[in-house]
Specification:
Elements: E1 2-6, H1 10-21, E2 25-30, H2 36-45, E3 48-51, H3 52-58, E4 61-64, H4 71-78, H5 80-83, E5 87-90, E6 95-96, E7 104-105, H6 113-120, E8 125-129, H7 135-139, E9 150-154, H8 157-169, E10 177-181, H9 186-202
Parallel strand pairs: 1-2, 1-4, 2-3, 4-5, 5-8, 9-10
Antiparallel strand pairs: 6-7, 8-9
Bound molecules: NADP nicotinamide-adenine-dinucleotide phosphate.
NADP nicotinamide-adenine-dinucleotide phosphate binds at residues 7-12, 30-31, 35, 38, 65-68, 70, 73-74, 91-93, 95, 131, 134-135.
């Protein structure tokens, strides 16, 4: 599959690298074409490099790996026409550190980042996933033992199936993929990140090499 990864931060590089490793073709997108650092990173990850618009035009699937506070600007630069009809996988969180640590999880007129993308780019088929864990775990779930979970939120069932396929390519098992429902459910996962921050602080080394699991009991009825 041809995948655009918008964002050259740790998350974008990690996902780009893993997608290439499992057989996909990736263009890593950044603001400018002459970003030498991003160009070098693309080389390291085995992907190509281009502007947000060039990457999005290339992608059959477009991954948003930029901060939630700049996501709208990034997707506007990518171009609504380059997102139309495509699966847009949003792995972002919108964190405001202006009051120090811990950050606040920001909403946009009451909605989360993924909902905002779906609202403002209605022809995109937005799926929220992977934002509830460290990027190393996103790309290599086998690094954490057990049936720890990754959430899916989105209004388009086919887009969620495509996304689940990419998750499986990275090593996620069906038992670990928990479909929460429509895109509005993603807001709760974006708010979860604050709990993640506190848990990470409380888990000893703060390495992020952990994830949440769901244990279900038998119904009493
Ligand atoms: N770190 C984790 O393990 C983790 C886990 C879960 C979710 N997340 C979420 O994943 C996302 C990516 O995080 P990250 O740390 O990898 O990357 P990041 O530093 O948040 O984002 C880097 C990208 O943002 C672009 N950018 C920065 N300022 C911009 C602006 N004003 N306008 C347009 N674009 C701008 C940069 O463009 P250039 O390339 O042009 O510089 C770069 O491509 C975030 O939403 C984060 O909350 C992170």
């Amino acid at each position: 599959m041809q995948i655009a990864v918008l964002g050259t931060g740790e998350v974008g590089r990690r996902l780009a690298s893993r997608f290439v490793e499992v057989g996909h073709r990736v263009v890593l997108g950044s603001r400018t074409a002459d970003n030498a650092e991003a160009h070098a990173w693309a080389g390291e990850t085995g992907s190509a490099h281009g502007t947000f618009a060039e990457a999005a035009a290339f992608g059959e699937v477009v991954v948003n790996a930029t901060g939630g506070l700049v996501t709208k600007a990034v997707l506007e630069a990518a171009g609504a026409q380059n997102l139309a009809g495509k699966v847009v996988i949003d792995v972002s969180n919108a964190l405001d550190f202006s009051n120090g640590f811990p950050p606040d999880a920001v909403t946009f007129d009451g909605v989360g980042v993924a909902e905002m993308i779906q609202r403002d780019f209605p022809q995109a088929r937005v799926v929220k996933t992977l934002n509830t864990m460290n990027n190393k775990v996103m790309a290599r779930p086998d690094l954490v033992p057990g049936d720890h979970v990754v959430f899916l939120s989105g209004d388009d069932a086919e887009a969620k199936a495509t996304t689940a396929g990419l998750l499986r390519d990275m090593g996620w098992r069906d038992a670990q993929i928990l479909d929460l429902g429509g895109i509005s459910t993603s807001r709760a996962t974006e708010q979860f990140v604050i709990l993640w921050v506190h848990m990470n602080g409380g888990l000893g080394d703060g390495s992020g090499m952990w994830n949440i699991a769901v244990q279900q009991g038998a119904s009493e009825d």
